[in-house]
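Hi V.,

You were right to ask for the full record rather than a summary. Here it is.
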Amino acid sequence: MDRSKVPYANAQRKAFVGTFQENQRTTFEYRLKQIDEELIHILLAADFQNMTFYAKENQVYFYSEYVGKNYETEAGELFSDESFRKLDSDLKSLLEPDSQKRTWIPMKEVFHTD
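Predicted structure:
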């Protein structure tokens, strides 16, 4: 298969897992539903595509694809946006930190297909 014809075949896939604080799953889901079009535009402009959250019991999984050229630069620009920082802060406040004080724990990709 000629992968050059597959859209976003060279995307950097990012996945994380977090644990909800007790009784915070509903609040977390509600907060995600409040994301406005402006913030979605900011995320897409920073070359983040296919952003997905999954929840099961007390855990939340986050997946996104970065399709730009410089992840560190664009992620830094994203975090300089006030509305994104507020969303990030709001969501993290609903999650339990791990032993390293991380609320979003990176997951290792073991397989994918485009």
